[in-house]
Amino acid sequence: MILLVISSIICLQAYEIDVNTFSNYLDVHNRHLHLEWLLNMDKKYINATSVYTFQVVGPQINKISLDIYKLNIYSTYLTNGLLLPHTIDSPYADSDQGQRLNIQLDRTYYRGEYIELSIKYSIDSKSRSISFMTKEQTSTKTMPYLFSQCEDANCRALAPLQDTPAIKQTYTATIIFKDTEAADVFMSANESQDQFLILNKPQDEPNFNWKYKYFIQEVPIPSYLIAIVAGNIEKKKTSTGGRTYLISEPDKIVPYADELKDMEQFLLAIEDYIGPYTWGTYTLVIQPPSFPIGGMENPLLTFANPSIMTGKGTGLSVTIHEMAHSWFGNTITCVNWANMWINEGFTVFLERKASFTHYNSTDDIKLNAIIGNTSMYQDMLGYGLNSNFSSLHPDTTGLNPDDSFSEIPYEKGFQFLTYLEQIVGQDDFKQMLRAYLDQYKYQSIDQKEFQNFLLRYLQEQDVKDFSTKRYKILENWDKWVYNPGLPPVILDFSTNKLTEAQEYCDGYIRADGQQPTNWQDYDNFLQTQKLIFLEDLYKKAENNLLKLNVVDQIDKDLKLTQENDFELKFRWFRAILTAGDKNRLTQVAEFLGQIGRGKMVYPVYRALNQLDHEFAVQTFQTHEAFYHPIARNNIRNILGLRDSFIQ
Ligand code: BES
Ligand code: ZN
């Protein structure tokens, strides 16, 4: 009995461990990180020093282990100057997770003690997180460009770190750069009014000036949220009086700011549901087109792919999504990548609540849920309906957690929360989420903790029918989280807008190369209906029901090959390539050189590879230098080429 009580106390406190870090983070916790980086943008090289404030949280330690990935480590030392010996090993033969840096301490340190140490190292173009671009690869072609992408486990390629979402630290940074190589530099932090001591003064060289920028992030954040961007970039307020800003190369900043003039309203719509935004300002960086994903929620400095700028505002849900991460992901964080839905599922849920407030229509939300469900199901089929990667709790032991990345934490997570909301009631659920944020802000948690909180909250609030609700919540909980494949309860998101879009697609198939009478309905469709139409077209193509005369007629009517909204364009190309269309290969190849966003190029490469492997490889080779290293590697895998990060 006593044992049971003790073990239940332990269980209540201990969160799940992170299998994707080599660090001894359960024994020692980094509280603050300082980075000093000297950028050599032309030479694709960063000379770096990192300074840590570790606190012992286990009983005692005599070494500190950190995650690294292809970093050049020069020396490790206590900040009082004492050199500490270090070794590097790879616990897994396959180095995809990187290596472990072991630093031998000068003595045993005990619980509560602090250890201040520094590492001198460098980052080069082998880095998996920093993308070094030449000036030719930018839009203004005047300066080189550099940006980072750390989620999920790529921060170890930026600095030796406890690369786990379980550990949160504050950070400061000094960035030193040449005025000829970057107009400005920004990080996922505020610019600091105070200057920091320069640890390595750069040597004077003629023809340029060194510039210094100082940053401070006072909120403890997980290491995957550290971010930097440098190049010919500038910052502009998006609307008067608001908190939102935009950063991009100067040539596009005016039209971008125009399309983003509602950013402050998005923030207000989210706050309306979930409570105040606590980070201060909000800045969106529109990155070069090779940015490998749609958006990344770096605190104070979201990064986004330019494909979200369609000229018509149709790509802006990505902005709402990344903003929503300021609460879910950046304030409360998943404790390991198996619990990613604690970030992404909650964020999609909040994103859809805010779009409802902003656009005041349920149709778009339902259609997005349906589109999301379709992509989720495709991902599940890809992994196998019985694979635990098709569950809300993937096991990535020994793997790069990126391997389990899919729509599942987003959409199954969203559906699970919608299901719980239906049990709890909309208003109580909203209040619960606000209380949850307050309780766990600046912490990292697992799904079991969320369950404990939810039940405790409902009980404490004495909600109506508590015991029935408790029973219903627990009834399917573990099935939602651990069972692979489709959710245990199927939710209904149907709307007549869905049938309208599906019937429109059927109409084209039936017309067999003629123009259907209602062909102009497309102009009045919601963007989400257009997406449904194109998803359906792809399904037809997969079932050999999309004939080339129909492809030609659709293109003649709807001009999809010339479409500027890449969400529509990539789905169009995927459908017609699957249908066997070889008449638009030039335009497909051109598209694949305009954008490097994985979600858009991978499906097109897959379809192109099936249709014409040679042409797919040739297209890839033409654009290889343009892609981000992560995208490059994934495309190589799709085409069955050698898998490597060699540049
Ligand atoms: N946090 C993710 C991006 C991410 C997840 C990067 C996992 C690496 C690993 C970001 O918030 C995101 O979800 N971006 C989406 C767009 C969003 C609207 C669903 C994307 O990039 O497509
Ligand atoms: Zn997200």
Describe this structure as you would to a colleague.
By secondary structure, the protein is an alpha+beta fold. The chain folds into 3 domains: 1-229, tricorn interacting facor f3 domain (Immunoglobulin-like); 233-494, Orthogonal Bundle (Neutral Protease, domain 2), CATH 1.10.390; 496-644, Serine Threonine Protein Phosphatase 5, Tetratricopeptide repeat (Alpha Horseshoe), CATH 1.25.40.320. The chain has helices at residues 2-13, 253-259, 263-274, 317-324, 341-359, 362-383, 408-424, 426-440, 447-460, 466-482, 496-511, 527-542, 548-558, 566-578, 585-592, 598-611, 613-623, 629-639; strands spanning 28-40, 45-56, 60-68, 72-78, 86-89, 99-110, 114-124, 130-133, 145-148, 168-178, 184-187, 190-191, 210-222, 228-231, 234-237, 244-248, 282-286, 295-296, 302-304, 332-334, 443-445. A 7-stranded mixed beta sheet has the order 4-7-2-1-10-13-12, with no helix packed on it. The protein has a 5-stranded mixed beta sheet with strand order 15-16-17-19-18, with helices on one face. A 4-stranded antiparallel beta sheet has the order 8-9-14-11, with no helix packed on it. Strand 18 (295-296) and strand 19 form a beta hairpin. Helix 7 packs across helix 8 (426-440) and helix 11 crosses helix 12. The model is unreliable at 7-12 (pLDDT under 50).
